Amino acid sequence: MKASANKNKKRKEQAKATARIYDEQLRKEINADREAHGKKPLKEKEREEETQEKTVSETDPECGLYQKGEHEVQFAYEAHTVCDKHGFILGYDVTAGNVHDSVAFDAVYEEVIEKFPQINTLTMDAAYKTPWICKRIIDDGRQVSLPYKRPMTKDGFFRKYEYVYDEYYDCILCPANQVLKYATTNRDGYREYKSDPKICVICPYLSQCTCSKNHQKTVTRHIWEDYIEQAEDFRHTPEGKASYEKRKNHRTRIRRRQRETRYAAHEHVRFGPGSKLGRAKVRCHEPQKVGRMDCQQSFTAMVLLFSPSLSPYIL
Q: What pLDDT does 245 receive?
């Protein structure tokens, strides 16, 4: 949702990098994987506190710079909402617009599961399709329904799924039926499989495989990749298809309700002189749907949607 902030009034700041909730667990499993392959465990980096540069609004420092489409950039907030199969909201979290969906997942997930432990299937969009999210949900004994995600490869090159993983021999088979052997496991949790440059240099598919100067192809596979594959298997089941079909319907209805209530941009609020309640002039993103609302009605709508003290079935 768009923030009431001028995108031209901004400044650059150095902010502390936020540690991920699973960093320690990932580090232990990376070292265990390296030792299983005969590699030395990675040494913990001794470095100063990490910082990253971010763009801060001078009008509203709590919002974040959000890329809307290919060309438009604006300061905004993001509402991460969870609902059940009937469309009732079970939990929510509001973050700055520059916080990725997968980063905000853990807080919302813990809140909802604590209140509703009987949940057995979670349906999400492609932004949540990460190894950690799939691992956490599946390890909790639940199913996760995620959509198909197109391979992010260059045009004219082989897709990642064309490189087949052989679990028994722990290697990758390329489209030319050559073996890419295990090389190492990096700090991000990805196993690296590399080809033999002497074979690749004479391969007829080299131009479709890699542009590296040493003619060596590297394919990565996360140590938690098995969880994503389990989510992919569930996607093809009748239950997985039905759950994702319901998500599309509920998402449209909830977003429409949010636009009609919370997403109204209160840019100019003026009370009539001498009036006890007065009226608020509300400028909305979709004025043809909302138009003018009483000040009391607009604040009630925000409380209904965002007050954690109210029942999740209030809407």
A: 82
Q: CA 62 to CA 12: how far, in whole Å?
A: 14
Range of the domain at 279: 264-315
Of 163, 141, 161, the residue nearest 150 (C-alpha): 161
Encode pLDDT of 286-309 as tens digits. 333 434 333 333 333 333 333 333
Q: What is the pLDDT of residue 255?
A: 61
Q: Decide if 199 is inside a domain.
A: yes
Residue 247 covered by a domain: no
d(CA 310, CA 275): 30
Query: Residue 254: inside a domain, yes or no?
Result: no
Most confident among 122-131, 171-180, 236-245 (mean pLDDT) = 171-180
Report the domain count for the chain: 2
Q: What's the predicted TM-score (pTM) here?
A: 0.75
Residue 314 has a CB neighbour count (10 Å cut-off) of 11
Rounded distance between C-alpha atoms, residue 107 and residue 59, angstroms: 27
Extract the tokens encoding 264: 């109204």
Please tell me the distance from the alpha carbon of residue 61 to that of residue 12, in angstroms, as a whole number: 11
> Count of CB atoms within 10 A of residue 44's CB?
8
Strands (E) located in the chain:
10-16, 51-57, 64-68, 72-83, 89-96, 121-123, 143-145, 164-166, 171-173, 179-185, 190-194, 218-222
* Alpha-carbon distances of 143 from 137, 207, 228, 243, rounded to whole Å: 7, 40, 11, 11
How many of the other CB atoms lie within 10 Å of CB of 203? 18
Task: Give the DSSP per-residue string, 237-265.
Answer: SHHHHHHHHHHHHHHHHHHHHHHHTTT-B
* Residue in the block written with tokens 């394919």: 219
Residue 248 in any domain: the answer is: no
Question: What values do phi and psi take at 68, rounded to 5?
Answer: -105, 105
